[in-house]
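Lab notebook, design round three. We kept the backbone fixed and only want residue identities now. Task for the bench partner: fill in a sequence for the structure below.
Input structure tokens:
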């Protein structure tokens, strides 16, 4: 069987959820060359003259143009123009997914299977690492051999990146779509419960609070709107909460320490871990460790927390440059270069970005980019609603977008490779999912 270049890029796009586990390099190469090929094929080979009449594509281009426009007014124009121009490759990901790579139901079913298997793998790997724990060294190696450099946080199979919870919370419901789409799995409700419960538990074990919060929110929304699966979702919530309670009560990580000091600063919880000495098992040794402060400690003293200072700095940057912002990828540059901004970071070094998607667009792109970004999101939601797929898949698509773009949470930067690819690839998958109908073959 001959495999042409279109099939090669299609298979590579299908494997992006797996390649994202390896880091940003391989996915970046695939989406860069894949989107270029996809657009050339659509415009030249298929002579799709109506492509640019599609509102979603028009809005995507307007959003991109707004990034370039505000770069003329940026402080560091090189940074802004460079990252604004190449940002186009992210915006082309959902376009190519929706109009080119995943238009075939069989291909899209393979994609959902890959996502499902990737989620299962990350879950098992992270749970193994979570159970591989000692008081002295924290969580041990995962199945591949990676070990976290941060005490109390899991890496899973992501090397030195602490993102297994983020990955699972965002891809988890797309993997769940595979169970709903394939009739033989759709009838096995027990499998649904185990799947959703596992993701919820791993999000908790990962130490990523936003992953746990957003996936919990997603389950609550599904409980309300996914009518035919309420019992399954409710059972998953109850079972997940019971397991989390049991883990919190009996896993040594949460019980084998004494608090020495607690404050809202980064790594502000100082604890003493006690364990049997390696040289003499009859003696007790101890180790002082700094870990993340409790969520309530941060909220109570938010202004002096890391997020409080970063968000205040972002606000000041926006107020000083409300229309065009300071420029794309200018946040760290201005924080280091301008005393007015630098002095606001009294307890921390300057961050690379504002750690919230909406705040980042306001600070770096001003009201112009912020407005076009909201229009972009609104256009995606309208397109999903207009698609003729089954209601349960449209609901899943909207819920996944809520997880991605819930405003009150810390996020990565959409300008950066790994997070940007993950988010815009998932947008593309959601668009395709919203037009999916049950096929008797699967």
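Proposed sequence:
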């Amino acid at each position: 069987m001959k495999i042409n270049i279109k099939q090669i890029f299609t298979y590579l796009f299908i494997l992006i959820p797996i390649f994202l586990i390896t880091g940003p390099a391989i996915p970046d190469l695939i989406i860069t060359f894949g989107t270029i090929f996809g657009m050339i094929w659509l415009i030249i080979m298929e002579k799709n003259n109506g492509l640019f009449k599609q509102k979603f594509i028009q809005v995507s281009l307007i959003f991109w143009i707004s990034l370039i426009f505000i770069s003329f007014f940026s402080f560091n124009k090189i940074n802004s123009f460079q990252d604004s121009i190449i940002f186009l490759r992210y915006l082309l990901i959902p376009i190519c997914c929706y109009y080119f790579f995943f238009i075939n139901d069989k291909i899209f079913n393979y994609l959902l299977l890959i996502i499902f298997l990737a989620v299962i793998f990350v879950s098992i790997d992270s749970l193994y690492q979570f159970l591989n724990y000692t008081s002295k060294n924290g969580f041990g190696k995962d199945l591949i051999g990676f070990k976290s450099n941060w005490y109390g946080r899991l890496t899973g199979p992501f090397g030195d990146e602490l993102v297994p919870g983020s990955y699972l919370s965002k891809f988890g419901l797309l993997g769940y779509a595979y169970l709903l789409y394939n009739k033989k799995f759709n009838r096995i409700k027990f499998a649904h419960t185990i799947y959703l419960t596992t993701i919820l538990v791993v999000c908790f074990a990962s130490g990523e609070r936003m992953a746990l919060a957003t996936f919990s929110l997603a389950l609550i929304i599904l409980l309300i709107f996914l009518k035919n699966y309420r019992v399954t979702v409710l059972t998953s919530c109850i079972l997940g909460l019971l397991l989390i309670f049991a883990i919190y009560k009996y896993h040594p990580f949460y019980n084998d320490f004494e608090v020495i000091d607690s404050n809202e600063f980064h790594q502000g919880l100082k604890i003493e871990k006690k364990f049997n000495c390696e040289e003499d098992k009859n003696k007790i040794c101890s180790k002082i460790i700094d870990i993340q402060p409790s969520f309530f400690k941060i909220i109570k003293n938010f202004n002096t927390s890391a997020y409080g200072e970063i968000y205040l700095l972002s606000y000041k940057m926006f107020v000083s440059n409300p229309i065009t912002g300071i420029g794309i990828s200018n946040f760290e540059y201005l924080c280091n270069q301008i005393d007015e901004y630098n002095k606001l970071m009294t307890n921390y070094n300057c961050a690379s970005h504002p750690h919230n998607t909406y705040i980042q667009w306001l600070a770096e792109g001003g009201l112009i980019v912020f407005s076009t970004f909201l229009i972009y999101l609104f256009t995606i939601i309208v397109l999903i609603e207009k698609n003729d797929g089954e209601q349960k898949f449209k609901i899943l698509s909207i819920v996944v977008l809520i997880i991605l773009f819930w405003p009150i949470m810390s996020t990565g930067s959409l300008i950066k490779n790994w997070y940007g690819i993950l988010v815009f690839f998932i947008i593309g998958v959601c668009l395709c999912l919203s037009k999916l109908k049950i096929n008797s073959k699967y």
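Keep this in mind before ordering anything: The beta strands are 133-134, 138-139, 257-262, 269-276, 284-291.
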